[in-house]
Amino acid sequence: MQKKEAPNNIQAYETLRDQILNGKIPANTKLTETMLADKLNISRTPIREAIIRLEEEGLVKNKYVYIPSETDIRHIFQVRSILEGFAAKYSADFISTESLNKLKEYIKTARNGDDNDKLKANYLFHQTIVEETHNPEIVKIINKMQSIIYLMRKTVTLQHRPHLIDEHEEICQEIENGNGEKAEKLVQDHLAKDLEFSINRLGITN
Amino acid sequence: MQKKEAPNNIQAYETLRDQILNGKIPANTKLTETMLADKLNISRTPIREAIIRLEEEGLVKNKYVYIPSETDIRHIFQVRSILEGFAAKYSADFISTESLNKLKEYIKTARNGDDNDKLKANYLFHQTIVEETHNPEIVKIINKMQSIIYLMRKTVTLQHRPHLIDEHEEICQEIENGNGEKAEKLVQDHLAKDLEFSINRLGITN
DNA sequence: AAAATGAAAAATGTATACAATATTATCTAA
DNA sequence: TTAGATAATATTGTATACATTTTTCATTTT
């Protein structure tokens, strides 16, 4: 049995999504159906369906590639902060030893690896904590924000925000100690710093 | 200038959404494009687009109308509890007098009005607190859960869960007192009770 | 010039035909 | 029977033509 290929509308959705996220399709681009259909060598029908998905996801708004304003980003980060804070608090009580070891591993990699490793390790650090809630709804919400988070993370790790890894270490420590309240607070402070650093460096405005 | 009518695909999305929510299209129904196209007297194209929207929203999964399991509902309620808890805490510090008066108004209506008034008042009570965050992301997430929440609310208010309104009153009180921590806790306990009551009465299983 | 008008062009929305898959029913061989 | 193959049917996916709406841009009017 051979693996069935995803239909064009799904593929189109995925490639467009990727291209928007990595900047190949820049912010504010008008997405015209015929233009995209030409580019991907398929008809307008699957393109339309891809665009609808992107719109529901919030990456496209009214046919234009959407860049969130500073206010938008602050709102998104508030949600992230609330949910990841909860996740950290929860982890302090319920984290598995495997996950805890993973966290330590990611800290090590983030200190020693190359840029790409660091990026991935920092992503996994946060993701592991979120997944430790074992609540797919929470994971889903965070994942939906990954597009913006990714941009921010790229900034803070590649531009070496000071103390970033130290903070990860502290968070990990408090989770290990079972100190949920402290862990929650640390995550929220940590994210607040990421936010300010990124907004500053990216020169985001309203 | 006359008001432009929404395109068929949007209208189809809205009517299907409504019909799923009020049970006209029962859970687990297979949504076939031709069948719906016939019923709404339009072609398959706009139907497909409507279904994609419903799928992105989570109301439809793999062409079937989706009913969340008990576990799903618990997960959803955990998110709701975290976010509404935050909203209550936030409100304690920042709520406007207008909103506070509204809350009191809704409590009164929920005590005296008819079933329909009660239902609406209880909805507005929670919605007002959520909106007081002035964070559209939070509002959006909660709204996306409204389908399930609606079901639950119908149960708890129409089957008169005891102390429901008393709890609203306490929450309102603590918000007015500026006691955020207490308000947060009360909201979370309140929602936990709603959840258990509803699951019990609706006979939801996995 | 600025605003208003209205063709021309472009883009979106819808129906439909046909192609590709998935599902169901039917039949055969163990 | 029943597991497996295969034909029949139903459903989904895609391209395309045409209809409708929106946008653009030149022209006229003030």
Give a short summary of the structure.
The structure is a homodimer of 206-residue chains. The first copy, chain A, is mainly alpha-helical.
The number of helices of chain A is 10
Cα shape of chain A: elongated
Number of DSSP-assigned strands of chain A = 2
Largest sheet of chain A: 2 strands, antiparallel
Q: Give the spatial strand order of the biggest sheet of chain A.
A: 1-2
| CATH-defined fold name of the largest domain in chain A | Four Helix Bundle (Hemerythrin (Met), subunit A)
Spell out the blueprint of helices and strands.
The structure is a homodimer of 206-residue chains.
Chain A: H1 8-21, H2 33-40, H3 44-57, E1 60-61, E2 64-65, H4 70-94, H5 97-112, H6 115-131, H7 136-144, H8 146-158, H9 164-177, H10 180-202
Antiparallel strand pairs in A: 1-2
Chain A binds a DNA duplex (30 and 30 nucleotides) through residues 4, 7-9, 32-34, 42-46, 48-49, 63.
Keywords (chains A, B): DNA-binding, Transcription, Transcription regulation
Pfam family, one (chains A, B): GntR
Protein name (chains A, B): GntR family transcriptional regulator
